[in-house]
Design goal:
- By secondary structure, chain A is an all-alpha fold.
- Helices cover about 75% and strands about 0% of the residues of chain A.
- Chain A has helices at about 1-20, 40-65, 70-75, 85-95, 100-130, 135-145, 150-160, 165-190, 195-205, 210-220, 220-235, 240-245, 255-260, 270-290, 290-295.
- By secondary structure, chain B is mainly alpha-helical.
- Chain B has two domains: about 15-60, no CATH class; about 80-315, MetI-like (MetI-like fold, Orthogonal Bundle).
- Helix content of chain B is about 70%, strand content about 0%.
- The chains are: A mainly alpha (about 300), B mainly alpha (about 325).
- At the A-B interface, helix 1, helix 2, helix 5, helix 6 and helix 7 of A face helix 2, helix 3, helix 6, helix 7 and helix 9 of B.
Chain lengths: ~300, ~325
Amino acid sequence: MNALTDTQRNATTATGGSGNGTGAAKPAARRRKPIRTRAYKWFRVVALVAIVLTFLAPLVWMLLASLKTNVDIYDASKAVIFSPTWENYDNVLGRNNYFTFIFNSFWVAFVSTALSLIIGIPAAYSMSRFAMRRSALVVLMARIIPGVSLLVPWYYVFSNLRMVGGYEVLILSHMFVALPLIVYIMMSYFDSMPLELEEAAQVDGLTPIGAFTRITLPLSVAGIATAGILSFIFSWNNFMFALVLSGANTKTLPVAIFNFVSYASIDWGGLMAAATVVTIPIMIIALFTQKYIVSGLTAGATKG
Amino acid sequence: MTALSTDTTQRGPAPKGPKKTGWQVYSDWANDHRKWLFAAPAMVFVGILIVFPLAWTLYLSLTDASGSVRAESDFIGLENYAEVLTDTQRFWPAVGRTFYFTIGALAIQMVLGMCIALLLWRPFKGEKFVRVVILLPLVATPVAVGMMWRLILDPNIGFANQLLNFFGIPGQPWLSSPETALTTLLFVDVWQWTPMVVLILLAGLTSLSDEPDEAARIDGATAWQRFWYVTLPLMMPTVIVAVLLRGIDALKTFDILYATKGKGGGSFNEVETLNIYAYGLSFDYMDYGVASAVLILFFMIIVACMWLVTFRRKGSK
């Protein structure tokens, strides 16, 4: 319901905006002269509303279903109007150890992101400043290789080391996802950063490493935030590594949700509550850090 | 002795004064070698986690390892490869599905993504809201997304069929039928990842300069001509980046397929791509030798695809 009113308001403001022809907020250079026909204007509004509905409606549906009893989920007449209940959340969070899984997901994502940042940022710096393109390719290989091909050997080694089921092995495997991402993002960030500041700092008596830690790093906070947020999200969402390498007590949320349906009949309300629990934190992070996420996902894309 | 002393003075003034403390020796050494000092930890980490497993997978693919990772295994040469490459029951259909899924999803995502990016290109009111909405599918946990679509596409209680019935169209089996399951999942992938293409293309579009487009407009080019002959060629580098990034991920799609159809890609293996097949062989059937052969072949396919895309890119320049 809420989403619908939002999109409607949006639709009307969009027409108003293009009708005026001048947006005060945007620089004039980006604006095109208003030669569009009325038909195109309406087409654009309809298309935008359709886009918003397509991407938003399924998520809203999931949220609504998580607030319904299973009887209501089966009842088509109660699609939108129903009496919401917290029952599903009570069941999921109360009975199924979900707080442990939430903690596991958070802890693994947090530690693997932190460690990857620690080894990834200097590597990205070096690879950017010394143009080590081949070395960069080695790290980026980690993004290309299918994860399954590494899982069998990892499983073999880590089970011999009696590490399977512990946090360490999960963190290591998630670092493997986070590190290439961080190196990729930070490399394009350092590439776009002028050399002059570091050179000036070295003229003033700082060592090259001192210039890196005292000048470059503080100036890279935005890039580091971008890399950190994205790597946290990717780790939080990761399913395959945790599916194989986690134990009963170190299960992360995606694995817990997957196990939810391996029993005979599906408790749809509970499943949707569980799915909402894993998605909501990420959505909230995304709402507040949208700018960083977009710049991270598109890093290096425009250089060609 | 004298020769030695003149030698040191000839080296020029020492940068940090005559006496070096122990700390400074280390510090100088670190500064001189910072290139590899900085890069090494990350490279060693990735190297150990990649090179050893790849070598191991290559070795396993030449043995009959199965049952347990600790079990005895014999070297059987290329037998696994022969078995896999002549397997028309599981392997070749899986290759076909992988390509169907990847090429289908990629093509739809690129076309849709370009359309949406062009729609969002010029500023409008409510832009911020639309951009946030577009970001949501992208950051949503794929397993949760799979479960969400399972409910929406359920033939009996799902919203999708309720909607179709409302318009008088008969309900579809979606995920439950072997014929439609893979295509349905292809569209779930399109739903989740088109926004990624939009964001990348939008970043490319915003970095374009307006002049070529203006010049074409003054010459009387239509909107379509301006897009096809001016904007698109200028966007090619960005398009290729998007194709590469999305293509690799689409080839490796695992989460939504496994979360919605489970082991073996459903009871008729209807959504079993190479990734699902290799995972099933490894962890559901413990047939490590064959699984490794499949993985090595899969890896070769990915590298070949990447090489094709980047090679064509260099060729066109």
